[in-house]
Amino acid sequence: MTIEIRPVTRDEAPAYLRVLPYVNGLPHWEPAPAAWHGGPEAWPPPNRPATPEQVARWVEEVVTAGHFHPQAAFDGGKVVGGSAMLSLAITVPGLREVPFGGVTATAVIATHRRRGLLRGMMQAMFDEALDRGEPLAALSASEGGIYGRYGFAPATRRTRWDLDRAEAAFADADPPAGSLELVDAATTRQAWPRVHEEARRRQVGELRPVPGKWDGLSDDATGPDGPTRYLIHRCPQGDVDGVANFRLPWTPLVEHTGTLVVDALQAASVDAYRAMWMLLTDFDLTRRVTAPTRPADEPLRWMLRNPRALRVTRQSDNLWLRVLDLPAALTARSYDTTADLTIAVDADPMCPRNTGTWRLSATPDGATCTPTRTRPDLTLTVQALGSLYLGGMSAALLAAAGHIRPHHDGAVPALGRLFRTDPEPFNSFAF
Ligand SMILES: CC(=O)SCCNC(=O)CCNC(=O)[C@H](O)C(C)(C)COP(=O)(O)OP(=O)(O)OC[C@H]1O[C@@H](n2cnc3c(N)ncnc32)[C@H](O)[C@@H]1OP(=O)(O)O
Q: Which residues does the annotation say bind acetyl-CoA (predicted)?
């Protein structure tokens, strides 16, 4: 078997797409209970294999979108695996925007798995991302056991929670300022980009969406999931500052009847956030609300008279991060404290320039990161650095798990103080 790994030409794009599970109708999410997806079901229903018209439409998107960079593995000229990077941007500590390569649309056909094809494509994508000046890579992992070996590690979390309507009383029941409106999909397609743009600039971990992200929203009912309904909030001046997509799905299971599912909710103000949740948690003829893709630290809990009523029913990793260019990444974010720390990174064969000892001199105004020969304060894996980068992971926890090795007392607390951010990083959607 001679495998060739290289970018995909326009003529090869249909064959690249057809190896992908979401195109050929094979499972593309891990089944429960370890599933990373947020839906209430044990395993999401499979897609039907794409029609030739759909493939033709996606080919146009793949080859014409400047931000889409596909790679494929060829065996005897036939596409047997594919992966792609999207050029995106993420909000990092200091509320700065940093470009990154988002790994997506990845698969190797069943006959060619476990032979290093994904490793080969990943290496090609890392090299291209570095050439484009993207110091980070990120992804959502279909399975938790695959991506650590390429240097990725969980950097944000997401939770699914349930709240029974009978327990959803708010501690402060006064109506928030502004007004709510139930709207159609066309209005929502306009509202989402505005609200998300405002919110993502204030939330570490949030992503700049790809063009057309909300174009697919519709008012059509699709099967038992029911049509998506849309809610917006306007501030007293009339501007939209909150938006939510929710459903009232039909189910044959008595225990799931009367469930209102909030698929997405984003607010650019506290009033919009509180007003939307007040309506959605007290919807007539429902019993409970379930929200599948929410931050681990949901302010709603602390708005309730009974905070315990909001029950987390699934928690999983969300965005996995990989530092490709260590000095560029560490100087792209800011730090709340002033500190000098010397960190050594274990061997990183896929991005060898990361390996070595680095002196990070951080202040709230900026940081420098330069190679040094001095004795390090601590040694860590590139995975630990990926988990720490957005400020959501405890350095003490990673040290206790053996991913950080301090060389003197005080090194791990100093690292923790330097990297931690509040609130916890969160990305409201994947790519
Ligand atoms: C970011 C996303 O797009 S998520 C979607 C990912 N796609 C899927 O899950 C679709 C179904 N799965 C697949 O198509 C393939 O299994 C892939 C793409 C995940 C992996 O492709 P492969 O070419 O088999 O991976 P590759 O051979 O490079 O694997 C490298 C290592 O990962 C291991 N590995 C790969 N997949 C798995 C897995 N599912 N579970 C456990 N280990 C795995 C291999 O055994 C190998 O181990 P080694 O480094 O110790 O030798």
A: 114-119, 142-143
Fold assignment, 159-315:
Aminopeptidase (3.40.630)
User: Residue 143: CB within 6 Å of ligand 1?
Assistant: yes
Cα–Cα dist 49/43, whole Å: 17
pLDDT grade for 66, boundaries at 50, 70 and 90: confident
Closest to 152 in 3D by CA, of 397, 382, 419: 382
- Are the CB atoms for 264 and 293 separated by under 8 Å? yes
H-helix segments, 136-206: 185-200
Identify the residue whose tokens are 């709510």: 180
- This prediction's pTM: 0.95
CATH code for the structural domain at 326-419: 3.30.1050.10
Torsions phi, psi of 151, nearest 5?
100, 5
Residue 68 confidence (pLDDT) = 92
Amino acid at 419: F
Ligand 1, pocket-test mutation among 100, 106, 139, 317, most atoms within 8 A of CB? 106
Q: Identify any residues that bridge with 146 across adjacent strands, giving them in sequence order.
A: none
Residues making up the annotated binding site for acetyl-CoA are 114-119, 142-143
How far, in whole angstroms, is CA 322 from its chain's centroid? 13
* Block residue for tokens 């891990």: 30
pLDDT at 173: 86
For residues 310 and 50, give the distance between their C-alpha atoms in angstroms, rounded to a whole number. Answer: 39
Tokens describing residue 41: 């079901």
pLDDT in tens, 335-353: 999 999 999 998 999 999 9
Please count the residues of the chain.
431
Which CATH superfamily is 3-150 part of? Gcn5-related N-acetyltransferase (GNAT) (3.40.630.30)
Contact 284, 150 (CB under 8 A): no
Main-chain dihedrals φ then ψ at residue 207, nearest 5 degrees: -110, 150
pLDDT band at 249 (very low <50, low <70, confident <90, very high): confident
The packing angle between helices 411-419 and 382-389, to 10°, is: 40
- Count, in order, helices (H) and strands (E) of the chain: 11, 19
Give the pLDDT band (50/70/90) at residue 53.
Answer: very high
Residue 384: other Cβ atoms inside 10 A:
26
Closest ligand 1 atom number to CA of residue 117: 23
Q: How far is CA 267 from the centre of its chain?
A: 18
